[in-house]
Amino acid sequence: MGPLWSPIHANFEWSKKLVRGSHMSGTDSMVTLQERLVNLINQLNMPVLETSLVISRWTNRLLKQLQDHSQNIPTNLSTPWPLDVEPVESESTFELDKALSLVDRDRMDILDTLIRVTLEEEQMLVSDALGVMRSWEHLVRGQLSQAAGPGQLFSPTDIPDDF
């Protein structure tokens, strides 16, 4: 499979920078990452399923890195944020493998690369990067919870103006 599915390597150069803490202003870096994510996801008209898969991968990767270096991780970083909406009940059934076979892996690789390059350029702290990923995770989980059928998994990610 492509780079999106490659295993986590503890010796990534950016990983060392993230953990060491040689970073730019945390707020500036988080804003840069947020702006780049919003712009790319909107530009690619990226389906919520694809966005969620990439965000989930990065959330898990960053959480693991943080856990490798700290035992005291705040709850807002260690666990997904509670949803603000009640999940939609659906009688619709579909095969997850079929839905996953329809994702655009190239588009997902582009988003994955954007995140990696931004983390490298900004030399973000793991906790700052994970905070941004948790906010995206919350957004896409909320949208996925409202999907009543497989077609809605491929609806464009809806990013609120104030996000």
- Oligomeric state of shown chains: single chain
Structural Rg: 16 Å
Terminal Cα separation, in Å?
32 Å
Task: Tell me about the largest β-sheet.
Answer: none
Mean pLDDT, all residues: 86
What structural category do the secondary elements indicate? mainly alpha
Could you estimate the helical fraction of the residues in percent?
A: 55-70%
Tell me the total number of β-strands: 0
Q: Which residues sit in consecutive blocks of at least 5 with pLDDT less than 50?
A: 1-23
What is the percentage of strand-forming residues? Answer: under 5%
Strand and helix map with partners:
Blueprint: H1 13-20, H2 26-43, H3 48-69, H4 75-78, H5 96-101, H6 105-122, H7 126-145, H8 150-153
A few lines on this structure:
The chain has about 160 residues and is mainly α.
Description:
This protein has 163 residues and is an all-alpha fold. It has one domain (16-153). It has eight helices and no strands. Helix 3 (48-69) packs antiparallel against helix 7 (126-145). The longest helix has 22 residues, at 48-69. The termini are far apart. Mean pLDDT is 86; it is low at 1-23.
